[in-house]
C-alpha cells in the first residue's frame, strides 16, 4: 500500500467507514460462533450502512439498496446511481456484535476496475468507544490477481507507516471465480489463508490487535487516492462483490462448518 496524505484504505475503513453506527448493541455484546450462507438476510446479525460517505476521497455514498441477497449470494454493489452528494452508490455492512479471538472467513468473488476497493475485514474504534484495532483483506480492483493484508493496533499500522501492507498473489483473478479468505486471530499471532493455504503469519505483539472487532464487507471507489487504488475508471453499469458464505469460529471451538479452514 502507498501513503496518501492522511488517507489510506484500511485507515479509511477504520477511522470513518461507519461514523454513524445507528445500531450499537448494549454492553458491547460479543458474537458467538456462527455460519451464514445467506439463504436469507439475518437482520439480527447484520447492520447495513446507508446515507453518508466517509470523506471527500470517496466518490460514492453508502446505500442500503446496494446490499441484497439473490439465490443464496450476498451482493455488495457499486452503481452509477447518484445518492446524496455523490455520483455513485456503494454497499457496506457489518456484524452488530463483535468477535473475539478465533477464525473468521468468507468465500467471495469481486468485480474489477481501477479505483475500486473490495474488502473483507474486522474493525473496532472510537465510534464504539474503543481503540482503533483492525485486521484486513483488501482487494484493489485495478489488479484482481492480488490481495493486500495488514493490521492496525490502537490506530498504528502493524506494517509500519500508514499505507503499508503486504501483497499476496491470488491463485486466480478474484473476478474470475470465488476465493476463500480466512483469518485466524489468537493472542499470540494472526494467520492469513487463501483457499486454505497459509500466506502470512504475524507473531509480533505490537502488530496483533487485542480488542473484539466487528466483521465488515465493503465495496467503494475513489477519484483521488490514485497512487494506491489507481485512476478511477468510470462505472457505467452496476457491479457487485458476491459473498457465498461467511463464518466465525471462536478460539478453542472445533470446526463449525465443512467449508472452514479449520476442517482442512
What does this molecule look like?
5% of the residues lie in helices and 40% in strands. It contains two helices and 17 strands. The chain is globular, with a radius of gyration of 17 Å.
Feature tags:
2 helices; disordered N terminus; single chain; 5% helix; mainly beta
Unreliable residue stretches: 1-28
Average pLDDT level? 89
Roughly how many Å is the radius of gyration?
A: 17 Å
User: Helical element count?
Assistant: 2
State the helicity in percent bands.
under 10%
Strand content: 35-45%
For the report, how would you describe the main beta sheet? 17 strands, mixed
Globular, elongated, flat, extended or rod-shaped: what is the shape? Answer: globular
Distance between the termini: 31 Å
Classify the secondary structure makeup into a structural class: mainly beta
Say how many strands there are: 17
The string of secondary-structure elements, in order, is HEEEEEEEEEEEEEEEEHE
Amino acid at each position: 500500500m502507498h501513503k496518501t496524505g492522511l488517507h489510506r484504505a484500511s485507515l479509511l475503513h477504520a477511522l470513518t467507514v461507519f461514523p454513524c453506527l445507528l445500531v450499537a448493541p448494549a454492553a458491547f455484546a460479543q458474537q458467538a460462533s456462527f455460519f451464514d450462507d445467506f439463504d436469507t438476510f439475518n437482520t439480527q446479525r447484520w447492520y447495513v450502512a446507508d446515507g453518508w460517505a466517509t470523506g471527500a476521497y470517496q466518490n460514492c455514498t453508502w446505500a442500503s439498496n446496494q446490499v441484497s441477497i439473490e439465490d443464496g449470494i450476498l451482493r455488495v454493489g457499486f452503481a452509477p446511481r447518484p445518492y446524496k452528494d455523490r455520483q455513485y452508490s456503494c454497499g457496506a455492512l457489518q456484524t452488530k456484535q463483535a468477535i473475539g479471538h478465533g477464525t473468521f472467513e468468507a468465500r467471495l468473488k469481486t468485480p474489477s476496475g481501477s479505483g475500486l476497493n473490495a474488502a473483507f475485514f474486522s474493525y473496532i474504534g472510537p465510534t464504539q468507544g474503543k481503540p482503533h484495532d483492525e485486521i484486513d483483506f483488501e482487494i484493489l480492483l485495478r489488479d484482481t490477481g492480488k490481495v493486500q493484508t495488514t493490521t492496525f493496533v490502537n490506530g498504528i499500522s502493524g506494517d509500519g507507516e500508514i499505507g503499508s501492507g503486504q501483497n499476496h498473489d491470488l491463485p486466480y483473478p478474484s473476478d474470475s471465480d470465488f476465493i476463500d479468505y480466512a483469518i485466524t486471530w489468537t493472542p499470540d499471532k494472526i494467520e492469513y489463508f487463501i483457499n486454505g493455504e497459509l500466506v502470512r503469519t504475524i507473531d509480533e505483539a505490537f502488530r496483533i490487535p487485542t480488542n473484539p472487532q466487528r466483521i465488515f464487507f465493503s465495496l467503494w471507489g475513489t477519484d483521488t487516492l490514485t497512487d494506491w487504488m489507481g485512476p478511477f475508471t468510470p462505472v457505467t453499469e452496476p457491479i457487485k462483490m458476491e459473498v457465498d458464505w461467511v463464518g466465525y469460529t471462536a478460539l478453542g471451538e472445533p470446526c463449525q462448518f465443512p467449508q472452514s479452514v479449520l476442517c482442512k
